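User: I need a structural model of Nitroreductase family protein from Saccharopolyspora thermophila for a docking pre-check later this week. Nothing fancy, just the predicted structure tokens so I can convert them on my end. Input:
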Amino acid sequence: MGSLTADQVETAVLQATAAPSLRNCQPWLVRSTPHGIELHADRTRMAPVADGDCRELMLACGAALMNLRLAIGSFGRYPEVHTFPDPARPDLLAVVLPGGPRPVAPIDRALAAEIPRHRTNRRPFAPVPVPAPLRRELQMAAETERAWLAIVDPARLSALHELVREAHRRQLDDARSRAEWTPRTGGVPAQCGGPLAEPQDEWVLRDCSGGRAAPGEHVDPLIVVLGSFQDGPAARLQAGQAMQRVLLTATAAGLSASLLSQVVEVAATREQLRALIGGGLWPQTVLRIGYGLPVPATPRRGVADVVLVDEYASARGGRTG
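Assistant: Understood. Predicted structure tokens for Nitroreductase family protein:
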């Protein structure tokens, strides 16, 4: 087995925890051990109503796992991944072991470099279509991680728009959903937002409207559905890795992206979305992709909040692996 220096462990942890998550709730914990780096779910950060089946928690942790794999790969080590390694500890989602040396793949180096540059962008996108070669590149990124990326046909955008609005309405009508996002100590942080619409959300909804733009505007973002061939925790964790590879691929190509979470959070609209894209496959998230202006980074939890300090301190004194 290979090994990582203390500085490499710290870099890998910081890269992992830069992953995107539902309203920036960052639902993960990391432990560094003498054998590798563990990724745990932090259920204190989840939203029990909006994410009652832990779908988005798993997607976020899958994105963190993708970052962890890329970070270790960029060090010239093979990232050996074991998912759900201990049935007695269901919140231990993965252990990543630094394997033997291997040449750094150019794609891994490039994607790892994009981790700190990626931003979720919910602002208006430029009226520039995503070229067909880039669309295929994004689809291949999902397929690399054993997932699929369906580009929503323009003829179906109006139907998707109605599903997004219906999901949004249901969340607003649910008192539990509204109460879930009341700022409180020890739970989902206030900056994670909530079901109430923010001004920029109208741009997101408009982009799913099948071209219902204001006079003089042209709306042509790419709306895609990322999903899996099965459903359940393992499939969602895998889909999260695919989602992050797609997002980093988009970032490397100069594209921006944001997530349309409502339509997947509500069970009824999620089933209708599944039917809309053909049925048989499982939608895990919807992405809006296009060319946007730079946006600031979202706040991140500190290392002390995401790493078990005792193991991390011992790793800082030596090596892992």
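Before docking, keep this in mind: The domain at 6-119+298-316 is CATH 3.40.109.10 (NADH Oxidase).
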